[in-house]
Amino acid sequence: MNLLHPGMALAALAAVSVPIVIHLLLRRRRRVIQWAAMDLLKRAMQRDRRRQRVERWLLLAARCLLIAIAGIALAQPFVKSSEAFGGSVRTVWLVIDDGVASAERLPDGSTALERSTAEGRRMLESLGAADRVGVISAAAPVRRLVDPPTADKTRLDSLLSQMSPADTGSDLSAAIRSAAEAARESEEAGEIVLLSGFRRGSLDPSSMAPSVDAEVNARWTLSALEPLSGFPSNAWMTRAEAIRTGEESGMEGDRTVRVQIERRSEALPRSVRRVTSAGPAAGAADIALDAGERRGGADLRLRRDGADAEESGAASISLELDHDAQPRDDRLFAVLPSEHPARVVVLDRRGGSVRDLERLGSGVWMARALDPGKSGALQVDEVDPGSLDRAMLKGADAAIVARPDLVTADGWKMLREFVAAGAALLVTPSPDDSGQRWTESFRSSLAPSWTIDPEVEGAVTAWRLAPQQPSSATLRQLGSEISVLAAPVSVSRRIRIAAPPTDAEAALVFDDSTPMLLCGRPGGASRGWVALLACAPELSWTDLPVRPLMVPLLQEVVRQGRALATMDAGNLVGAPASLPRGAAALEIVPPAGSEGAPRGTAILPAGADGRTRDPVLAPGLHRALDDSGRPIGTVAVNVDPARASIEPNDPGAVLAWLERSGSWRWRGDGSTEGEGASASADAEASWSIWLLGAAVALALLETIMARLLSRSDATERGA
Amino acid sequence: MRAEQYLAPETLSQLAPFSLRARMIVEGVMSGMHRSPYQGLAVEFAEHRPYTPGESLRHLDWKVYGRSDKLYVKRYLQETNLDVVLLIDASASMRFGTLGQKSGWGGTEAGRSRSLWTKFDCATATAVALAYLCLAQRDRVGLVLFADGVQASLRRSGVRDQWRKIVQALTTEPVERATMIGRSCDEVLATTRGRCLFFILSDFLFPPEELRLALARLRHRGHDVVLVEILDRQEIRFELDDPTIFEGLEGEPRVMADARLLRRAYLDELARHRAEIERLVRGFGYDRVSLDSHDSVGPALASLLARREALARRSGAG
Questions:
Q1: CATH code for the structural domain at B3-24+82-315
Q2: What residues of chain B lie within 8 A of the CB of A43, using their CB?
Q3: Nearest CB to B267: which of A51, A52, A716?
Q4: Which of residues 128-187 of B touch A (CB under 8 A)?
Q5: Which residue of B has its CA nearest to A46?
Q6: Domain A83-231+646-682 is of which CATH architecture?
């Protein structure tokens, strides 16, 4: 029940004290009279004491009640139709999609989340005063924001007004499941209202639907806001990577970052998008996309001193795309690889000074290829495989195993740890034909899915490298030159290697399409990089050491392998983040320009797999901390473009997905329920008339009662 | 205070057509209108009865003996005067009154200080009216004022001046003590010879059991009694509205009560009390009349006298 004029009701309640005060004053104001018939008086009092008390309090209560009812009647109480006619109290669970997709800007300037919360507020207005509402946030991880449900509409309205889109994706399935669990625990009937735009980022109709048990389906109404239609243009950055250092390009003081974007929309007209670098490493570039073109890229030149350089030489950058309908995926955080000279450990056994080129070992060739001019651009340390220990690998960025047959079991274990910590490893076959028993150790330690034939193949006619080499991340810097460089190379002995394309890429292939160089992440690791050459780089196997390809191949394998080994594997909001070597925790740092504290815990401890134990819930450049809490690196975490997608879903497909869990109906875009709320308001029954009638009846009753209680009839008077 | 002031003209005019007769035959020393219980030689033959041997031959009816040869004794009804005793309650409860006095009404010590017409004033007015009437028909009238005992008394007398003495006694005696009608009655009977008509004027606000004992003694001595109950209108109607502290006139402790809520119960108790007194009076064969001190005395007394006249005629005594 609500009151139109609550002040009147309060005044009436205060006025109730008036008859009480009068009653008390009258009790105090007694006059003294002399009386003769005292015996009769005493007998009357003894006989009537209880009745008098009851009648006195009855009269007082009637008078107080009369004033209270009159006051409440003047306050014009009314009851919502749901109370007046429904009778029972309803419970409503509002499931609000506040995932990252709900940040979408609608044509009217509001966000998809604001559309949902506006519908939620309309729902609140249509409810009775006693109806209770619970709120569930559908952004992962799903949370019950108001539990148990409350009838405090002011609090609910305030909560809905303050909701903002999260950076994580939506988990509508878990949210519905949570509401269904709450409904099952409740003994009352009610309604589950799902408020979402149902964009592709919020819901994949092919995903598993939640289960809502039959009892809840029978007692509870399930309704959902209709999916948003239209497909506005949305672009996002897919990658930002350093392609050339200033030293290499000769442009001292700058770093070049290649930025790639992708776009989706109903129509794909020609457009130009601008990428800017936020913060001190200022820079900007335009990316032109032709009509129908979905992807594009541009090189962005950043000032080296502006980038947020770390002790390790890595630099973090924050890039921003000009805003479109989904602003949350227009920002990209990245950590550029270190520019410090790489240190490479070459595992080879030297057999003394060899002057005959034909007898030079693969380790020597590779060491020379890494630092041909002895310039010190790459620091090369040669280590005997049999004496390998952790101290030798400490601080190294890459290792090349020229004699895998000499690596002990412990050595393979150390190499496994070395790679998993974020280093690069190149393994070449043992020059000795009979020495290929290392392959199983390699596979079990580093690449369980790879196939390596330990038998060395010999060819009467040497194998040539394919004239068209594949485009690979490892040799990307060589570009189209790789085919020219690979053409003269011939191989007379080799081992057969292969790997599933999902686990490794073939950076070089023979003309019979078998891989000559396989590259990929070690099995089950989030960091590190492993490459395997099919032939030993010495002249008894191949003429590669004396071909122009040898130097750039080794240089790129080490440099790019180092970069790829430490490159973020695309840390996304809503998932655990990969941490640098030695990190014990990740400190969440709100991105510049963001409001308030980030959602979730500020310090996330690292797990055994080198990732945070808990998912990261905020994008940004977060600090990796060691055991002592000292920052040791930066971890970039970005919004998942797939979860931010504003690609529309077919309403039929959404309804089909929903109906796998129960009988859902659309609520319309507020209009239907608005009418319902209006009708509900019209149905409000005023109780004033009834209460005034009751007050008059009570006044009459009080008068009669007072006369009956205090006066005798005429017959008695005459007696 | 002039005695006439107690005799409002309307009271006397209403009483004048009636002669006061005792319903019972009372003993009188003077011839009068009342029949004597003593048959003898006096005025009027009553009946014959058989002669008893040894009895005096003085009242033997010789004429009957001569005609019938049987011995009969003649009996006579003797006309006597009536002795009336006005027994008036002068206890403190009779000081109660709520009617404001008007000039010329007269009054007693009981109500003069507060200018109120008290129950005692009403009793005085009634008593002097009765005395006047009795003296007018040559009956003897005595007066007794009682409370917890006899306060004052006047011997029965039929002289004209007796009436003034009665008025004098009533207007000067203090009215302030508690009521003990049994004891008072004993004292009165100890000094009363012969049969009398007692008018007891009181509010009778004492336990009916006390009254029963007193009436039983009077009945035992063969007296006739008329109870004149005098109550104030406020006592009869109890028209009080506010919470009130009641203070007893005879020394009872104070009582606080909401008069309005108490009214019904009080009136019930009063009715029960009066019914009990009525039952007692009828049980003894006496008369009772109730007076409202705010009303005129005449109509009630006239009604009483008319009733007694009718009864006397029916019994053939008069």
A1: 3.40.50.410
A2: 269
A3: A716
A4: none
A5: B265
A6: 3-Layer(aba) Sandwich (3.40)
* CATH number for the domain whose boundaries are A342-566: 3.40.50.880
CB-CB under 8 Å, B245 with A30: yes
Low-confidence ranges of chain B (pLDDT < 70): 1-46, 76-81, 101-113, 312-318
Contact A36 B235 (CB under 8 A): yes
The pLDDT value recorded for residue A718 is 38
* CA dist list (Å): A411 to A110, A384, A392, A450, A713: 60, 11, 11, 20, 119
Lowest-pLDDT range, A506-510, A680-684, B308-312? A680-684
Number of neighbouring beta carbons within 10 Å of residue B17: 10
B260 Cβ under 8 Å from any chain A Cβ: yes
> Chain B, 71-100: which have a CB under 8 Å from a chain A CB?
93-96
**Number of Cβ within a 10 Å radius of residue A678:** 12
Residue type at A224 in one-letter notation: A
State the pLDDT confidence band at A75, using cuts at 50, 70 and 90. confident
Q: Which of A31, A36, A44 is closest, CB to CB, to B266?
A: A44
For residue A60, give how far its alpha carbon lies from the nearest alpha carbon of chain B (Å): 13
A185, pLDDT greater than 90: no
Distance separating alpha carbons of residues A484 and A463, to the nearest angstrom: 16
> Domain locations in chain A?
2-79+687-718, 83-231+646-682, 244-336, 342-566, 585-637
Show the CA angle centred on residue B266, arms to residues B265 and B272, nearest 5°.
90
pLDDT tens digits, residue range A211-262? 778 778 778 888 999 999 888 889 998 888 776 544 444 445 567 888 889 9
- Is 2.60.40 the CATH classification of the domain at A244-336? yes
The half-sphere exposure of A220 on its side-chain side, counting CA atoms within 13 A, is 31
Contact (CB<8Å) A712/B94: no
Q: How close is the nearest chain B Cα to the Cα of A710, in Å? A: 5
Whether ipTM exceeds 0.95: no
pLDDT band for position A474 (cuts 50, 70, 90): confident
- Return the H-helix or E-strand segment holding A93: strand A91-96
Under an 8 A CB cutoff, do A52 and B261 touch? yes
Cα separation, B311 vs A191, whole angstroms: 95
Over the stretch A302-348, which tens digit does the pLDDT of each residue have? 776 555 556 556 678 888 888 889 999 998 888 877 767 788 999 99
Report yes or no: A626 and A584 within 8 Å, Cβ to Cβ.
yes
